[in-house]
């Protein structure tokens, strides 16, 4: 009825069927702009009738209906101007205010809409229609050392708000929330409770130095994304190209991730409280199909112990249960606001002995003093984690004899522990009998002070002082009943390790923001940055204890210490310092023609005096075509901007010890007569000529917003060159003391493109379907290699059998290519046949390194991220999908365990199935190269929001209940475990099952959560 007659109904104090009948009858009298209400007798009254007949009174009750073009606006703020009297509109867009004077003015506001003021006068019912604010929708973007209106940005920057992070991924951490939402950003995470995440933005930027983007948290460079809780994040801005990142100089070669956490806001003196919890169950799936105990015995591979054990399954923690709790309080008045939060997380992995517990809190505050001359933004962040990450050996689980049992009731431990079989042991007993306890502690107080210099309007000075202390502890104990101790006839082994790092940051900068004559806008920043890093460590091992019960807490009591055989080590990291001065200017003419330039002069203590300082700069320009006169008649184009940028950044993210004269014992030293002597001396060859890695990048982009901002997105094309690549190369002895040295060896080129589009596909009063799609592609090559560095091999397959390397880096080689032999078939006996360099078919035994060639590539031709949000009234549904298209994965599991004759090791069922014809030695060839193309449903989240104000007398605003399934399914033709292998380096593209810290089951999660807003 509201839609047909363009009128609204405000329910009275009674609610009955007869009331509904009277409303329908009154419909025939409805005028287009009327608001209807019910009186005590259920009579239908128009707003004009009410206004004409209500007696004048000094104070009264006013009913306000807030709507936009689609219907009621929920959560709009209605306040009596100049007071704290107000409320928020309910699910019907209605606000009822009591004791309102006639001469009052109401202020109605909502994010993304133009605020309106309405005089009350004699009105008792007021209808307000909000209009979207196009300028507000052009949000502010954090650009580093300041912010800028999105419409004035001339660089490649992608921004996400807190709500964007939560689409489809409730129950996830920050890195998982970013997965698939940023074009060009690739992440690799194992699924372990203790695993970190590897980031790569726009392909490789180095072959050895740091490849991950710089993380800046609330203006504090060098932050650790793991120290944050997702619920505390307000926004994330990703600076992709050189023109955006050059202001950060040496640490921005791989891009910059700017994270802004939530801070206090003006709540009119009221306390806002939010509590959320999540409970998660994890499931391991898609394990390799190994021979069963019966099959192993039937094929007479090894001794038959009569059992049937699935070792992979035995390593899984089927009883895992994770939970997360977060409490946030917000309070504020005009001059002071505070946001504080506390959290607790218990995260159990899908593997035995893999889990952690985290707890901590954050306080962010804002204070305005001395008539707003001074703003102080102090913050304190603390987080502590207790870890148990034994890293169960799933490779060993694959090859263990399945006729053996992991348990032995006759053994005092309850486990079956067998000895003197170095490549065959009970992985379950190893995991459960070792005591592993680690602790991580983050402590980060920070003060951000802003001085507004009022005699010069628009001029301010901002000072940031930050200190970060991180401590890491590791406690391990292997009891006398552990395999390792029984094999060595020892009575226990205790290990303690401790490390501490400290980061000190001091940054200050002036900002001047001024609009001239309504046509010119200027935003200038200039300042300095200082960063210092220190660290120290200690470690000790001792053996043979009288009892096991005290473990590592009484490490001095082991007999190895008194016997002089205990191991101890300590060290202090080389102090790293970074100092720079910088400046940036942004200019806009009529918000149509945009210019930006920056420069940073920076010095690093990691380099010698001759190479310590360098300049990094950028320039970019933008043209908002939509502001031109010839575009005025193109009503469906809201904003259209073309931009071009060029920037130079550096990379010094390598160990400071590369440039230090490191001395140590246990070293062979060259004597003047040419003989080698065992003595104290240099442990590395220092290269005083080592210089910065330098990235030069240009970017061409287009931003667009169409159809009343219903459709928006961007396109970017980039090309970058990285010079002075740092790598460890072989050098002759003599004249060098050691056989390797770090050198600048060449250059690399990377190019690619990104496309993003999003918008509301369907928007009605009750139903909205929003979608965001991003596509990206990049490719790279080694452009030059200098001196004697004609090639470098990598990606060694180390186990079992050490079959060799599968990657080579040489001038002109494509990043991501496999350097392997070309498969030619099998001979009659099942041995591999290969092609030699002249394409002749040869037996595998006759192959040489020169017969290898570049085959396939693990870099996807296209990476797709696609997220959807559906809302129907109080229901919401989020779906995240990702796809990597047209890339290759080397199936190392098939190569190593798909062949018969591996001694007593268990093998894949396929070794006696589709690979049964293979009888010879394994070969690194393209027979095991597979198309890894996949489509993943990363997560599906279904939620329901319950409005609770009227049921709890305004104590609880709303409650949201939701459920999430993570890692729902993977559609792929790849026959291995997981086609989503690590691609964040030049020697990746395989499932490296021999790396016990990185080979982990695929994990599916089931999460239930609730959020309470008070």
Q: Write down the overall geometry.
A: globular
The pLDDT mean sits at 85
CATH topology of the domain at 2-133: the name is Immunoglobulin-like
Number of helical regions: 15
Percent strand equals over 45%
The low-confidence runs, each spanning 5 or more residues with pLDDT under 50, are 1-57
Largest sheet composition: 22 strands, antiparallel, barrel
Ends apart, CA distance between termini: 34 Å
What is the alpha-carbon Rg in Å?
33 Å
What is the helix content?
under 10%
The CATH class name of the domain at 2-133 reads: Mainly Beta
CATH superfamily of the domain at 2-133: Carboxypeptidase-like, regulatory domain
Could you give the count of β-strands? Answer: 56
Name the structural class: mainly beta
InterPro entries: Beta-barrel_TonB, Beta-barrel_TonB_sf, CarboxyPept-like_regulatory, Plug_dom, Plug_dom_sf, TonB-dep_OMP_SusC/RagA, TonB-dep_OMP_SusC/RagA_CS, TonB-dep_rcpt-like
Family: Belongs to the TonB-dependent receptor family.
Domain TonB-dependent receptor-like beta-barrel: 494-879
Protein name: SusC/RagA family TonB-linked outer membrane protein
What does this molecule look like?
The protein has 1014 residues and is mainly β. Among the domains are: 2-133, Carboxypeptidase-like, regulatory domain (Immunoglobulin-like, Sandwich); 136-261, Beta Complex (Ferric Hydroxamate Uptake Protein, Chain A, domain 1), CATH 2.170.130.10. The chain is 8% helix and 49% strand. The strands form 13 sheets. It has a 22-stranded antiparallel barrel. Strands 14-19-20-17-18 form a five-stranded mixed beta sheet. Strands 4, 5, 8 and 11 form a four-stranded mixed beta sheet that branches. A hairpin with a 7-residue loop joins β15 and β16. The longest helix has 10 residues, at 17-26. The radius of gyration is 33 Å and the shape is globular. The model is unreliable at 1-57 (pLDDT under 50).
């Amino acid at each position: 009825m509201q839609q047909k007659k363009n009128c609204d109904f405000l329910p009275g104090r009674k609610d009955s069927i007869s009331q509904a009948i009277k409303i329908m009858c009154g419909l025939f009298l409805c005028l287009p702009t009327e608001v209807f209400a019910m009186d005590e007798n259920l009579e239908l009254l128009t707003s004009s009738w009410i206004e004409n007949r209500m007696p004048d009174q000094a104070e009264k009750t006013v009913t306000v209906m807030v709507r936009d073009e689609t219907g009621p606006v929920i959560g709009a703020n209605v306040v009596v101007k100049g007071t704290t009297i107000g409320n928020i509109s309910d699910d019907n867009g209605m606000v009822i205010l009591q004791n309102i004077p006639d001469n009052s003015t109401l202020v109605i506001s909502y994010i993304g809409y133009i605020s309106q003021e309405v005089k009350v006068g004699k009105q008792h019912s007021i209808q307000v229609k909000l209009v979207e604010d196009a300028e507000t929708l052009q949000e502010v973007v954090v650009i580093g050392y300041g912010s800028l209106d999105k419409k004035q940005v001339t660089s490649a920057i992608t921004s996400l708000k807190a709500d964007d992070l939560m689409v489809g991924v409730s129950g996830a951490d920050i890195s998982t929330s970013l997965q698939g939402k940023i074009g060009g950003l690739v992440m690799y995470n194992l699924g372990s409770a203790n695993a970190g995440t590897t980031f790569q933005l726009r392909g490789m930027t180095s072959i050895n130095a740091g490849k991950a983007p710089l993380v800046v948290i609330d203006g504090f460079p060098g932050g650790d994304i793991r120290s944050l809780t997702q619920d505390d994040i307000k926004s994330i801005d990703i600076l992709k190209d050189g023109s955006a990142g050059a202001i950060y100089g040496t640490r921005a070669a791989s891009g910059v991730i700017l994270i802004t956490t939530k801070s206090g806001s003006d709540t009119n003196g009221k306390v806002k409280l939010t509590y959320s919890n999540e409970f998660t169950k994890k499931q391991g799936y898609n394990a390799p199909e190994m021979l069963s105990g019966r099959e192993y015995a039937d094929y007479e591979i090894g001794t038959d112990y009569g059992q049937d054990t699935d070792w992979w399954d035995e390593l899984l923690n089927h009883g895992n249960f994770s939970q997360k709790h977060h409490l946030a309080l917000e309070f504020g008045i005009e001059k002071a606001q505070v946001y504080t939060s506390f959290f607790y997380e218990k995260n159990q992995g899908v593997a035995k002995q893999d889990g952690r517990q985290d707890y901590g809190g954050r306080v962010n505050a804002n204070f305005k003093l001395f008539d707003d001359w001074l703003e102080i933004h102090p913050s304190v962040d603390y987080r502590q984690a207790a870890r148990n990450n034994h890293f169960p050996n799933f490779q060993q689980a694959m090859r263990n004899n399945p006729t053996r049992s992991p348990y032995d009731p006759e053994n005092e431990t309850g486990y079956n522990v067998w000895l003197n079989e170095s490549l065959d042991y009970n992985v379950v007993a190893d995991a459960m009998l070792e005591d592993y306890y680690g602790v991580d502690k983050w402590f980060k107080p920070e003060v951000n002070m802003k001085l507004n210099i009022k005699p010069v309007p628009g001029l301010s000075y901002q000072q940031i002082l930050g200190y970060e202390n991180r401590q890491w502890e590791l406690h391990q104990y292997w009891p006398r009943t552990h395999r390792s101790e029984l094999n060595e006839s020892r009575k226990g082994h205790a290990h303690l390790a401790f490390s501490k790092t400290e980061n000190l940051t001091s940054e200050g900068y002036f900002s001047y923001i001024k609009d001239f004559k309504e046509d010119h806008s200027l935003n200038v920043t200039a300042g300095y940055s200082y960063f210092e890093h220190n660290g120290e460590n200690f470690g000790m091992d001792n053996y043979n204890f009288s009892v096991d019960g005290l473990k590592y807490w009484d490490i001095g009591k082991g007999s190895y210490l008194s016997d002089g055989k205990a191991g101890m080590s300590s060290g202090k990291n080389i102090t790293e310092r970074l100092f720079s001065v910088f400046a940036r200017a942004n200019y806009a003419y009529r918000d149509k023609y945009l210019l930006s330039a920056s420069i940073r002069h920076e010095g690093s203590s990691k380099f010698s005096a001759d190479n310590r300082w360098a300049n990094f700069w950028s320039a970019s320009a933008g043209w908002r075509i939509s502001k031109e006169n010839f575009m005025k008649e193109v009503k469906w184009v809201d904003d259209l901007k073309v931009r071009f940028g060029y920037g130079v950044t550096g990379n010094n993210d390598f160990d400071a010890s590369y440039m230090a004269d490191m001395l140590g014992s246990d070293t062979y030293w060259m004597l003047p007569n040419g003989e080698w002597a065992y003595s104290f001396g240099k442990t590395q060859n220092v290269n005083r000529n080592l210089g910065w890695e330098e990235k030069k990048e240009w970017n061409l982009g287009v931003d667009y917003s169409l159809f009343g901002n219903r459709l928006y997105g961007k396109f970017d094309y980039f090309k970058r060159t990285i010079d002075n690549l740092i790598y460890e190369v072989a050098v002759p002895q003599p004249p060098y003391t050691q056989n390797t040295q770090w050198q600048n060896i060449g250059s690399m080129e990377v190019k690619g493109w990104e496309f993003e589009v999003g918008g509301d596909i369907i928007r009605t009063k009750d139903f909205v379907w929003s979608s965001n799609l991003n596509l990206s592609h990049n490719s790279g090559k080694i452009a030059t290699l200098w001196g004697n560095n004609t090639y470098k091999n990598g990606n060694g397959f180390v186990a079992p059998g050490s079959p060799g390397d599968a990657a080579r880096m040489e001038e002109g080689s494509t990043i991501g290519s496999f350097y392997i032999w070309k498969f030619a078939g099998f001979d009659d006996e099942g041995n591999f046949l290969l092609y030699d360099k002249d394409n002749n078919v040869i037996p595998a035994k006759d192959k040489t390194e020169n017969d290898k060639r570049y085959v396939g590539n693990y870099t996807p031709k296209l990476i797709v991220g696609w997220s959807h949000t559906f809302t129907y009234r109080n229901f919401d549904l989020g779906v995240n999908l990702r796809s990597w298209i047209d890339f290759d994965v080397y199936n190392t599991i098939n190569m190593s365990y798909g062949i018969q004759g591996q001694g007593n090791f268990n093998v894949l069922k396929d070794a006696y199935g589709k690979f049964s014809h293979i009888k010879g030695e394994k070969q690194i060839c393209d027979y095991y190269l597979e198309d890894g193309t996949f489509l993943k449903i990363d997560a599906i989240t279904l939620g329901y929001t319950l409005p609770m104000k009227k049921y709890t007398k305004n104590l609880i605003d709303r409650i949201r209940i939701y459920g999430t399934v993570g890692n729902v399914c993977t559609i792929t033709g790849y026959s291995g475990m997981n086609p989503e292998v690590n691609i964040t380096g030049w020697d990746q593209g395989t499932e490296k099952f021999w790396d016990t810290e990185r080979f982990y089951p695929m994990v599916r999660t089931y999460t239930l959560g609730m959020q309470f807003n008070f």
